[in-house]
Structure prediction request, 396 residues.
Amino acid sequence: MAAYRTLDDLKVYGQRILVRADLNVPMKGGVVTDTTRLDRLAPTIKELSKRGARVIVLSHFGRPKGEPRAEFSLALVAKALSDVLETDVEFAEDCVGASAESVVNRMASGDVAVLENLRFHPGEETNDPGFARQLAELGDLYVNDAFSAAHRAHASTEHLAHLLPNAAGRQMESELNALERALGAPKRPVAAVIGGAKVSSKLAVLGHLLDKVDMIIIGGGMANTFLHAQGIEVGTSLHEPDLADTARDILEKARTSNCEIVLPKDAVVAAGLAENTKVDSCAIDSVPQNRMILDVGQGSIANLEARLKVCATVVWNGPLGAFEVKPFDVGTNRVAAAAADLTSAGKLVSVAGGGDTVAALNGAGVVDQFTYVSTAGGAFLEWLEGKALPGVKALS
Prediction:
């Protein structure tokens, strides 16, 4: 039984539904360049519209710092959303006040409207009760479908949920169900793949996962810090020598928690990070002093593929190498493909998230084969850290 209501629990016909969405999409030259977030929002809007609700979409866009700025208007995003939904979408030039009220009052059952950028008002980011009340006056019910903004205690994500009967949208529901399957009550053994450049940005994640998973696979620049902490030469590789003691502490806590830390066995090295540069492979304890580790080697790939075969669940955050530059995407691509194949065969529950992770899995061409891939960056990371997310807590 979920600790929150869903759309199944709401009577929506004729009701004004405030849907907190995340329309913070990439845009170039006035054109939305990636509609993933709009595509994922569409099921909630379409369902509410089909059920006769008046759907009023709230969102932030960029960082306008509490004042109206033309380059952060949601007008063009509303047009893109209209294209995705294949229906007309009204647009209000403010999210509160006369222009918002005018648009909302004109709406008939089934209509969809987008209100202007919430962050044009300073009260949004300060979680101002007065601003939240102004928003609440426009609706009868509140639906949060923006997990990616749930880590922020803002007026539209936190306070508004206390002012109206609330529920999770379909995307939020899917996300929370996937996260529960990954760490809340997972099938074991559970592996976590944690990559990226710096240990310092993932300390809280590693600390939280030690008691939650059976195995932590560490990749990317992070692995170099752990190797250095164990006295292994990492050449000119990116690493954080000042965190050597911290890395040793994590390794010791892992031992007492019966959580295995898996580090690379071999590496792909080069003189520098450049497209199609000359590369060599070597054992992890044989990295030349004038070379940098930029990807895991074939032995490491085979080891990780074998380990995934004995796991029932994998949580993935971060690449295994400098995947943005070829040929250093091979390790991430191969291991991601292995996870995808196991998922497709029904042998693995795979949940991934974080900006770099989504880009890496897109590059590997396996996003659609994972059980769930979250587009949330900060919210996914804070969930991995074990933090309570204000936007989720407010729905309970």
Observations:
- The two ends are 12 Å apart (CA to CA).
- The mean pLDDT is 96.
- The domain at 7-171 is CATH 3.40.50.1260 (Rossmann fold).
